Amino acid sequence: MPGDHPTGAIAAVLPAAGDSSRLGTNKLLIELDGESLVRRAARRALEAELDPVVVVVGHEAEAVRRTVADLPVVPVLNARPARGLPSSLRVGIDALPADIEAAVVLLPDMPLVTAAMLRAMVERWRAERPRLVVSRYGEAWAPPVLYSRALFPALIESTDGGRGVIRAHRDEAVSVRWPVELLVDLDLPSDLARIRGSP
To answer: What is the CATH number of the domain that holds 125?
Structure first.
């Protein structure tokens, strides 16, 4: 509710509604080091003191809810998960309290993103208050991305998962650089084999 968060409060939005069709199973329920990918991402968002942590569920919603049930997160339902990431972002951003000033969009299928990375993005935003804080891995731009509240309406209207919002506001963004080895997303069984045992 408005007023429940400190000035400058930053939320996290975790889209976890897709059916992971390329992998053949719900990848967000796959376990890495003893916990599901969605739980791993939610835990790291909490460790970074993002609040609230909104987990957007859809495909196998109850199974995804159960894997984070003991964490202080806010599950919200995307009733049309087949519409993809843009629909989940719309649901997640729309669920944020009115007093949230920025939100980090974190994809649970990028399991090498750490709480320290999220904290660094938050610190950069607090220091400079840009419209965007984007992650850069070598020459590639990828999530997580921190969006200021001023961009929430554009993000809700986005049809490409926020990429157009980033392009439109690139000159208002600051970037944080990460080792290129951390740019791993889980789409194929071979991807999972690569990241087993990662910290």
So the answer is: 3.90.550.10
Would you call 37 helix, strand, or coil by DSSP?
A: helix
Residue 47 placed within a domain: yes
57, two tokens:
């569920």
- Which stretches in the chain have pLDDT values below 50? 1-3, 197-199
Beta carbons of 108 and 14 less than 8 angstroms apart: yes
The β-bridge relationship of strands 53-57 and 10-16 is: parallel
The 10 Å Cβ neighbour count of residue 181 is 10
Residue 73, sorted as left (phi over 0), alpha (psi -120 to 50) or beta, turns out to be beta
Specify the pLDDT at position 1. 38
DSSP state of 161: T
Which pTM was predicted?
0.89
Res 23: pLDDT: 56
Cis peptide before 52 (omega within 30 of 0): yes
Residues 6+ apart with CB under 8 A from 142: 110, 135, 136, 183
Contact 6, 12 (CB under 8 A): no
- Give me the domain span that covers residue 59: 10-195
Q: Is-cis flag, bond preceding 143, omega within 30?
A: no
CB atoms within 10 A of CB 59: 17
Per-residue pLDDT at 31: 80
Residue 5 lies in a domain: no
